[in-house]
Amino acid sequence: MQLSAQDLTALWITFKLAAVSTAILIVICTPLAWWLAHTRWRGKTLIEAVVALPLVLPPTVLGFYLLLLLGPRGTVGRFFDEIGVGHLAFTFTGLVIGSMIYSLPFVVQPIQNAFAATGQRMMETAATLRASPLDCFLTVSLPLARRGFLTAAVLSFAHTLGEFGVIIMVGGNIPGRTQVASIAIFNHVEALDFAAAHALSAILVVLAFSMLIAVYAINRRFKVVGVAQ
Amino acid sequence: MSIEMRFRVDRGGFALDVDLTVPARGVTALFGRSGSGKTTLLRCVAGLERAAGGRLVVDGAVWQDARSFLPTHKRPLGYVFQEASLFPHLDAAANMRYGLRRTPEAERRVGWDEVVELLGIGHLLDRHPDALSGGERQRVALARALLTSPRLLLMDEPLSALDHARKQEILPYLERLHDELDIPVLYVSHSPDEVARLADHVVLMENGRVVASGGLSATLARLDLPLALSEDAGVVIEAVVGEHDAHYHLSRLDFPGGSVFVARRPEALGARLRFRVHARDVSLARERVEGTSITNLLPARVAEIADADTPAHVLVRLEAQGTAVLARITRRSLDQLQVTPGMQMWAQIKAVALLS
Amino acid sequence: MKRISRTLAILLSAALPGLVCAAEVKVAVAANFHGTLQKLAPQYAEASGHTLTLSSNSSGAFYTQIVNGAPFDVFLSADAARPAQLEKEGHAVDGTRFVYAIGVPVLWSATPGVVDSEGKVLNTGSFRHLALAEPRNAPYGAAAQEVLTRLGVWDALEGAGRLVKGNSIGQTHSQVATGAAELGFVALAQIKTADGIPGSHWIPPADMFTPIAQAAVVLKRADDVEAAKHFLNWLRSDPVARQAIEDAGYGLE
């Protein structure tokens, strides 16, 4: 079972994409999840629905509109063109943006739930123990929401590994840049090269599976408890 | 040295309107039924509720007024919630260090060993909250609050979530706290028992307003408050151990105005003790009665007479040189004995409940 | 009432041999020919009484699906190889295979002035991305690769990651039409309109690439083989159909 250099590159791009978009998403979504968990603003349901939207949109549709937005004629693409970076269609950056939008609900929801489950009492307690709001967030809320963060990271990573529809529209299938494993497998199937398709799929599944097992095993070692009553 | 508080909170069906000053020493109990606003008041003092335009001055330091609001984490207070609220991701020792670490060194007056010994938690330090019983959790929570060397300790019904055995286990610690540390306490409770054991000052609340505020004994002895109409109506008297009678296994407790004899106590001579005398355990006589088995007879002057909770009875407040006693007698006896205010009588105390 | 009219229909069809009942012919059509066939479908329906149901995809995808039992009656491929393969493997009805159109690849840009009439833009390389269909799966893509190789620019473009490979000619067209890729190789049939060709384009000389013979075949799985055959015959021989195919931008055999 031999994988071509191009296939290995595709695997590398896939994992890079999953890691980068997951990392950025977690950083961006934490404040959003925090706000959603604590706000009592009436417009909250609207925001939650918008966050959940990528779940229901067909990936190819999402990909198509992203292509328009990020390309030379779209608002975002034109902006990047003007500042000299160049438009984002068919670039790795464009893929990262696409993956982030696509995996957004998978990251926001578990973290939001984890924050909400922690509850007001813990934060009030920390305040009475001289912890400023930021201090409390870092030393109490974050550790107690650990499980939510883990779920978010795993879901986002796994989701991006298998992503196809968005990438095939925005990516352009450029080897070494935007050709991910899922697209490569698809191309092999179309070209009737089933041996290569099987090989690449197997490696992808094995790698992803091992990674997930490692993550859950590490999680088990740190005793993660809910709020004791 | 006092704590001035003025708060007004309007929330849907509930309104709190309080203008109160309590001593900045000892234990002040906020007492009342559920829904009377005691917890809300406590939370206002802690800064957990933002009562617009409120005012709070603690021992000269302004924590809140019309122009400023010191956020909770900047107030040098300790707070013990009804349920322990220990951080589940830290063990007991780490929980206790949490507040201690955030207290500037210059302000630390309460020592680690002192607190561990006071609350008897030395063997619990490396356990996580889910491996502690309810009572143990509360003690750790108390230790945690104390280690921030608070200027004011707030306790919101800390014992109500515990069963009777646990309560009895912790009450002695709270009493020791009261005796050994010089930190004023605001203690919310709906248990007359706890109030009787711990409080020096009582604030009685009803429907978001303060109905009465005063020293424990004086307030309990008032006949115009709902307190007097409860089953537990009675007074709390602070006394000193005067003598131990080895032969009869009795101890004599002295207080201004008289003494009572109780079953032999382990405390040394001169030790302070509190005891409760329920109104239903006190009967009256015009003259000192000889040939009676009742040992505790107290000469006292009738101060006030009021209706009791049933039409057949009345409540009489008597004063014995500064110590008040309540007696619950039948209206018939009242008329037969021709009891009038100012009259000198003998209070016959049938039973005394020691609060220790 | 229903039973009577049904009996009548059966009697009528028995009494009139050669009259085929109105059938539905399910057509798997390559992306590049889809638009053209859509225009022809009503004309065929009028002429024959049969309705055409069209599905569009890349030829490679169709091949795999057909081999795995997809319920199509007729396959119009973008190449000649796959129909031949299907016939060899026994999925197609013998004797029905023929070339229905000769594909014309075009280097096209949605923006006027980008592509010159001699295709020199490929040498100057003044573009960021060039779109084409995946050469392994789509004959138009293979033709594009041949043209680029002939001009000696394939390696440079591929190495610089400037080639955007779509999984079907339909996607390639999308990428160029939206301007995401400045230019690309599409099928003439996709861009030719009654008012001419928008944007700018260059048709490479036929000697630069292997001719794109697009073949069709009737599938053994067809529900109504006769209807399917009838359709392909019409496509092959009917003058209206042939004219339409030419007008659309294809060559004919």
Concise description?
Chain B is α+β, with helices and mostly antiparallel strands. Chain B contains eight helices and 20 strands.
Structural class by secondary-structure content of chain A: mainly alpha
Number of helices of chain A: 11
Radius of gyration of chain C (CA) equals 21 Å
Biggest β-sheet strands, sense, barrel of chain A: none
- Using the alpha-carbon principal axes, give the shape of chain C: elongated
Q: The biggest beta sheet of chain C, please?
A: 5 strands, mixed
Q: Give the helix level of chain A as a range of percent.
A: over 70%
Tell me about this structure:
The complex is a heterotrimer of chains A (229), B (356) and C (253). By secondary structure, chain A is mainly α. Chain A is built from eleven helices and no strands. Chain A has helices spanning 5-38, 44-56, 59-70, 75-82, 92-118, 120-128, 133-144, 146-161, 165-170, 181-190, 194-221. Chain A is globular. By secondary structure, chain B is α+β, with helices and mostly antiparallel strands. Chain B is 21% helix and 37% strand. A six-stranded mixed sheet of chain B has the order 6-7-8-3-9-10, sandwiched between helices. Chain B has a five-stranded antiparallel sheet with strand order 13-12-11-14-20. In chain B, helix 2 (92-101) runs parallel beside helix 4 (134-146). The longest helix of chain B has 17 residues, at 164-180. Chain C has 253 residues and is α/β, with parallel strands linked by helices. Helix content of chain C is 42%, strand content 20%. Chain C has eleven helices and ten strands. Chain C has helices spanning 2-15, 31-48, 59-67, 81-88, 121-124, 139-150, 154-159, 169-177, 188-191, 225-237, 239-248; strands at residues 24-30, 51-57, 74-76, 98-103, 105-109, 130-133, 163-166, 183-187, 200-202, 212-218. Chain C is elongated and about 75 Å long. The model of chain C has no long low-confidence stretch (mean pLDDT 88). Chains in contact: A-B, A-C.
Main features:
heterotrimer; B: 356 residues; alpha+beta; five-stranded antiparallel β-sheet; 8 helices; 21% helix; C: 253 residues; alpha/beta; five-stranded mixed β-sheet; 11 helices; 20% strand; elongated
